[in-house]
Structures are given as C-alpha cells and as structure tokens.
Amino acid sequence: MGVSNTGIDFDQKLPKE
C-alpha cells in the first residue's frame, strides 16, 4: 500500500494522514 502512479512507494516520503 502506498504506490503512486509512477510505481514508486510514496508512503515513505508522504506522511500518512
């Protein structure tokens, strides 16, 4: 869970709100 359209795990970059 936390995959952007580019296929990069943004869950480590963006904070979980």
Textual characterization of the structure:
By secondary structure, this protein is mostly loops. It contains no helices and no strands.
What is the topological layout?
Elements: no helix or strand
The proportion of residues in beta strands is under 5%
SS-based class? little secondary structure
Q: Whole-number radius of gyration?
A: 7 Å
The share of residues in helices is: under 10%
Largest sheet: none
Shape: elongated
**How much is the average pLDDT?**
62
How many individual helices? 0
DSSP, total strands: 0
Poorly predicted regions are none
Alpha carbon gap, first and last residue: 14 Å
Based on the model shown, name its key terms.
17 residues, single chain, little secondary structure
